[in-house]
Amino acid sequence: MAAGSGRILRYILFAVFGTAIIYFISTSSIPSYAQQQIPSTGKFTWDRTSTQTSDGKPNSAHDALGSEASSSPASGVPAASNSQSAAPLNGITTTESALLSPPAPGERVNATFVTLARNSDLWEIARSIRQVEDRFNRNYNYDWVFLNDKPFDETFKKVTSALASGKTHYGEIPTEQWSFPSWIDQKKAEAVREDMRRRKIIYGDSISYRHMCRFESGFFFRHPLMLQFEYYWRVEPSVELFCDIHQDPFRVMKDNNKKYSFVLSLYEYVETIPTLWDSTKKFMKAHPEHLAPDNSLAFLSDDGGETYNKCHFWSNFEVGNLDWLRSKAYIDFFESLDKDGGFFYERWGDAPVHSIAASLLLNKSEIHFFNEIAYYHIPFTHCPTGDDVRLKLRCHCNPADNFDWKGYSCTSRYFDLNQLAKPEGWMDQV
Ligand SMILES: Nc1nc2c(ncn2[C@@H]2O[C@H](COP(=O)(O)OP(=O)(O)O)[C@@H](O)[C@H]2O)c(=O)[nH]1
Ligand SMILES: [Mg+2]
């Protein structure tokens, strides 16, 4: 009898000990959050499937818009929610991985990550996805849209959908958005490329880079796969995130009525945009109704709009509002620039185009600087200023690498214009 109850006691102790270990493992994963609170409005299951849509060409908009509506983030349940159960991945089911790192509580914003990439970018974008997931999305499970001017191959889809915790969508770009518009003189464009090649201007002789800049300037937000979303976060290959992200950036944007955000800003190479400001002035004259009353013209110009100081937000990182990009004001701006031909007769980048639009068409309060999102895209680093914030967010960037307060950054100007207090310690980094 006594031996039997001793055995039972050992079993109980063993079970308690085992449960404690499992609890410890599941709560020590980064970042850690309380158990998911199930919204009363929807059904929630731990299972999820990375849905590979067919290469969603614009004429297959139905795939993008209709078939997944029941589990879309707009419904208020996490994007992870899906009626199908997931296949085991290297022996670990996604159900188990969700238990190891449970979804963060709270409603999701109707938002997605978006990446433009070639099949050959696979391993570079894999690194970026892994970082975004580890630092943030593993607990939020936002969708991810991949766009390409060619069909994505099976390996690209398999690897990226395994890495992303939310649903994945794969879309092809319509030819007319990745080719020379009818009004472009191709001989003239070719001569420009040859001249820029001789002058060794970065990407100066590239046709595809120009299509990429034009697509990012005027079309990605109108792709059928993007139409269902309200906010986007652009992710490029080979970027790094150095700190945990504890606050949902999409929620920060939405709750504070922000339309555009950045982490790095700098001066553009003047050789790539000699007439961009002339085109901008033409637009301002033609469409004064689109200029925001409390705009950031002073971020772009030091002489009241006469000349451009080349300051821009670096668009390889962006969290922004898609409805703003789809607005008449933005589309009028893009179309006006597009007609002027500078995407091909010069080498206008999407970064100055987005930045000029945000600075002129939005009120100051609608642009946001994410100090706490630590970020690297070759060759610049944004590492949050302030020891406290870096320790709290478990950052691994070297503060000495922070670009924010260096002479070639425009972030100091942004702070001054918006009368924001610079974080303690900024002076030591100048
Ligand atoms: N599908 C596709 N994506 C491209 C092409 N060129 C660039 N990209 C993507 O466009 C983005 C910017 O290109 P990247 O080479 O990083 O330019 P950089 O950051 O200005 O040096 C990245 O997400 C690339 O993967 C292209 O020809 N086709
Ligand atoms: Mg890049």
TrEMBL record:
Highest taxon, organism lineage: Eukaryota
Transmembrane spans: 12-34
Keywords of the record: Glycosyltransferase, Membrane, Transferase, Transmembrane, Transmembrane helix
An annotated Gene Ontology molecular function: alpha-1,2-mannosyltransferase activity
GO terms under biological process: cell wall mannoprotein biosynthetic process; protein N-linked glycosylation; protein O-linked glycosylation
InterPro entries to which the protein is assigned, alphabetical: Glyco_trans_15, Nucleotide-diphossugar_trans
Residues covered by region (Disordered): 44-88
GO cellular component: Golgi apparatus; membrane
Ranges of compositional bias, category Polar residues: 44-57
Pfam families: Glyco_transf_15 (PF01793)
Low complexity: compositionally biased ranges: 64-83
Family classification: Belongs to the glycosyltransferase 15 family.
Record protein name field: Alpha 1,2-mannosyltransferase
Organism: Exophiala viscosa
